[in-house]
Amino acid sequence: MTRKERAHLTIDGLSKVIARPESELEFRDEYQLIVAVILSAQCTDARVNMVTPDVFAAWPTFDAMARAGWEDVAQVIASISYPNNKARHLVRMSQRIVQDFGGRLPKSQELLMKLPGVGRKTAQVVSSVAFNDQDALPVDTHVFRVANRIGLVKNADTPLKVELGLKRVVPRGSWGLAHHLLILHGRYTCTARRPACETCVVSSICEYNAARLRLPPPITGLNPQRGAYYCGTRKRYFDTPATRTDRTGTMQTVCPRCGSFNVYVSKTGQSTKVVRDFRVDGIRRKGA
Q1: CA nearest 134: which of 179, 72, 89, 97?
Q2: Cα–Cα–Cα angle for 163, 108, 90, nearest 5°?
Q3: Which parts of the chain have pLDDT scores under 70?
Q4: How many CB atoms lie within 10 A of CB 174?
Q5: Cα distances (Å, whole numbers) of residue 135 to 124, 125, 147, 163, 167
């Protein structure tokens, strides 16, 4: 199966189970949108939606936010991640928009990325949602993880590589749709810690799920009193394992004597092998 075919099946499959492929941030205009998106960096949309009503009540426009003290803004958004930095970004971003753009949000990604606190992902989200920018395909942690897991991209270890890889296999008119579908799929099904592969509608074409199913089955009859781990290659027990990176770049538990990956937990009989899952704690770069 080619990546284009996999991308087509992914979009088709996710479209059937995700009724509203759109942002879960709550906003009414361009000002509220960019404020919410800046606040959402490394923070959940649900948390942002709890905070923004107070933000918009206190500072309802770019002009009002431009005249705010960042310390006051930080107090209101204290429950959001990195409140001090984000408060400074919101005030400076609004000042720039008032001074350089007449209080109106610029439409191009290039101009948006010149605003304080606005990186490539934020600029693309805003331009896509606010202005229907057909060139935008924002990549956050969910899109990064899901695109790599399913196999829509290959060896894409940065957000930019994922973006460019997706744009090669997803039709241009579907970039915005793909962005929302992959985010929502990653948020509720293909989660970072416990992906629900058993109920996933695209599991049959997912490279991560295929690798997961190839993991060695558990073995029975092990004696944990002889050691915490068991090497299935040398048939020996040991308590302190070693680690080694496999050919996918994933750190694996190995036998300290022979270096074999064929290691089991004595107490459960489960293999210690893990599948590369493309989890990231956050995509850190200028803004978000």
Answers
A1: 179
A2: 90
A3: 280-288
A4: 17
A5: 8, 11, 18, 11, 9
Predicted confidence at residue 187, as pLDDT, reads 95
CA–CA separation, 214 and 218 (whole Å):
12
Integer Cα distance of 213 and 242 in angstroms: 24
- Residues forming the active site: 121, 140
Q: Identify the pLDDT of residue 6.
A: 98
Per-residue pLDDT of 133-174, as tens digits, reads 999 999 999 999 999 999 999 989 999 999 999 999 999 999
Give the pLDDT of residue 280. Answer: 66
Burial of 236 (0-12, 13-18, 19+ CB in 10 A): middle
Contacts of 170 (CB under 8 A, 6+ apart): 7, 11, 137, 152, 178
- pLDDT at residue 3, as a whole number: 96
CA distances from 202 to 29, 108, 182, 186 (A): 35, 34, 12, 12
C-alpha dist (Å) from residue 54 to 32, 46, 48, 69: 12, 14, 11, 15
Q: What was the pLDDT predicted at 249?
A: 87
Token couple for 143? 């899109």
